[in-house]
Design brief:
single chain, Rossmann fold, 11 helices, 9 strands, alpha/beta, binds NADP nicotinamide-adenine-dinucleotide phosphate
């Protein structure tokens, strides 16, 4: 995957404020809801978002009501007249198994200029575009859950070369969520899914493991958890703020014969953690490929 991307740094760049028209969002579950909240918190007028979800959790429903976001349980209940401009974006944030029926249902609600985004893991562009007219532009996207806070990593791959306006519109949608990476090949998307798509959960598990190991060493569990959270946050900030490699950062904090080195010797013995991570990410990668076949 080396060199397979072009990076656009997000975090709400002011020139990326969205002014591109309506977003029709299908699915306001965990990821769709996170994107919805981030869009409305930052760059997007809530009146330009229409949400379709059969049964969002009550808290999300309340949240949408408070912001007067248009919400409907199904596309068939969406009021509209032929005078309405089609949405600028259709965003499919439903489970992979629900993508086909969702696109089919959305067909009559979009126009030829609508950019069709899908964030469904493993579902190829060809699959979600197949019910739509030839020439409809699709963008396969893989965000991750820190998108809610603007610290996400979103990889994008378009079904055809984009015009400058389409690229700007796509980045306007994705950049409030965090950093944006344009992939050079769709095949890289399964690796992205295994790394950044599923990755936040790996770090949450690491936090659990560090908390529990700290508690086993006699720390109060609540303190151990706070220390684990803050340590991951701090290390993440260092990774983000410096150009130094992860290896250089690790070496800089492990003095020979010291405590850190004693722990790393075990983690790195016979590449113990590296091998486990390779196996774990290969399992995620295989699952993404299975979904796509
Ligand atoms: N969670 C993540 O961190 C993450 C990261 C990257 C990508 N993704 C991708 O994001 C997608 C959604 O994942 P998720 O974790 O957010 O799942 P989720 O919490 O189950 O959300 C999906 C939502 O879509 C609703 N829905 C089902 N059919 C629909 C339809 N026809 N029209 C509109 N809404 C419909 C579901 O309602 P019901 O529950 O009633 O079916 C549910 O509320 C998946 O394809 C996943 O691969 C997720």
């Amino acid at each position: 995957m080396k060199g397979a991307m072009e990076r656009h740094r997000g975090f709400g760049d002011s020139e990326m404020i969205r002014d591109e028209g309506v977003i029709l969002l299908l699915g306001a579950g965990r990821m769709g809801g996170a994107m919805l909240e981030r869009w409305t918190d930052t760059a997007t007028d809530p009146k330009t978002i229409i949400v379709i979800d059969p049964a969002p959790p009550p808290s999300r429903q309340r949240w949408m009501d408070e912001r007067e976001i248009a919400f409907f349980p199904s596309l068939s209940s969406l009021p509209g007249s032929s005078d309405d401009a089609p949405p600028a974006f259709l965003v499919l944030a439903v489970k992979p198994s629900q993508v086909a029926e969702s696109v089919e249902a959305a067909r009559s609600h979009i126009g030829e200029a609508t950019l069709v985004f899908s964030i469904a893991a493993g579902v190829p562009l060809a699959a979600f575009l197949s019910p739509l007219p030839r020439g409809q532009i699709g963008i396969r996207a893989m965000p991750n859950s820190p998108a809610r806070l603007g610290y996400g990593a979103t990889a994008l791959f378009p079904s055809a070369p984009l015009t400058a306006d389409q690229k700007r519109a796509a980045e306007g949608l994705a950049s409030p969520l965090g950093a944006v990476f344009w992939l050079k090949e769709e095949a890289a998307m399964d690796g992205v899914t295994a790394l950044s798509g599923s990755g936040p959960a790996y770090l949450f598990h690491l936090a659990e493991c560090m908390r529990d190991a700290g508690a086993a060493l006699g720390l109060e569990k609540a303190l151990a958890e706070q220390l684990a959270r803050q340590t991951i946050l701090g290390a993440g900030a260092m990774l983000s703020e410096t150009e130094e490699s992860p290896e250089a950062l690790r070496e800089a904090v492990s003095s020979p014969g010291g405590t850190t080195e004693a722990a790393l010797r075990l983690l790195m013995k016979d590449e113990a953690l590296a091998r486990l991570m390779r196996q774990a990410m290969t399992a995620a990668w295989k699952k993404a490929r299975e979904i796509g076949t």
